[in-house]
Amino acid sequence: MSRINPLSLGPSDFEALMVSWGYKPFVARQILTWVFHHNVTDLDQMTNLSKSIRGDLAERLTLESMADVEVVPSGDSSATKFVLTLLDGKKIECVVLHEKAYNTLCVSSQCGCPVDCKFCLTGVVGFKRNLEVHEIIAQITVVQQRGFPITNLVFMGMGEPLLNYDNVFKAIDIITSEAGFHLSKRNITVSTSGYLAGIKRLIADQRAINLAFSVGNANPVKRARIMPIEGRNSIIDVAKTLHDYQSSHNRKLTLEYTLLHGQNDSEQDIKELANLAKYLNAKVNLINLNPHIRIPFKPVSSSQMAQARDWLKKLKVPVTIRFRRGQEISAACGQLGESHLAG
Ligand code: SF4
Q: Is the CB of residue 120 below 6 angstroms from any atom belonging to ligand 1?
């Protein structure tokens, strides 16, 4: 009999399953409390369950999602990368970004990514498969087990989250539920490269979530050169759909803009970005490219970065520069996937 991972079920479905096996509902709740409040994934450590219950459940349940966990701290302590080997041997990566008062986990939604943005190492890796619900949730458990309590979650690791919509949002529902980690939805951001069908589904499902949109270039012709997704998901349609989405709730929208030397850093490029930001009432995050031998672009200089920021400020667009952290451990934005290329 193949064992079921309760982390892939919502709390009520897990309770129903346990009841169908003849257990009281509170036994299900005890197990979820161990997992979500104490980060315990070993049934034998769940000491308020009797030995016979643990023995029986060990045959029916598994709480394991990872075959191996490698922890790679950055030299400046600003980030810690986790290289996680899934049970089928495939690898994913996630990164804890250390702030003074809290930790943000940059979580993966897919193993690899099919979107192939030309400035992203995960795109170079290509697509392996979608992550299961329990594999998304386990990324939080694994880092918390190693002493990094997570308060903020960004789906900016490997993969396009809206291409794994069902599993990503089921995981978010569990993560935010009282029986789960009880994380605030306001502390979760889902990043998209502009997958139209996914944004439309967010509207249809009336899902209010902070979104980050990876722009690449606000000009459709130039965008298509660095983001092939533009072919079927024109930024003009994406902007209209994001506008509709924003008008249906009050969650934040951020435009992520990776600066590529000579590709999207001219004054005209920044003006078009500013127009998009104003239309969407969004703030802009400027990110410098993390250079890699497999990426055919160069980063901009610090003065070019400051110039882009100043152009945006002059055009009255809220802007921040996101500094590259964990670059030397390939944990920075767009760098996840090194473990695949090294292997
Ligand atoms: S930037 Fe995001 S969507 Fe684009 S290839 Fe990388 S992981 Fe995929």
A: yes
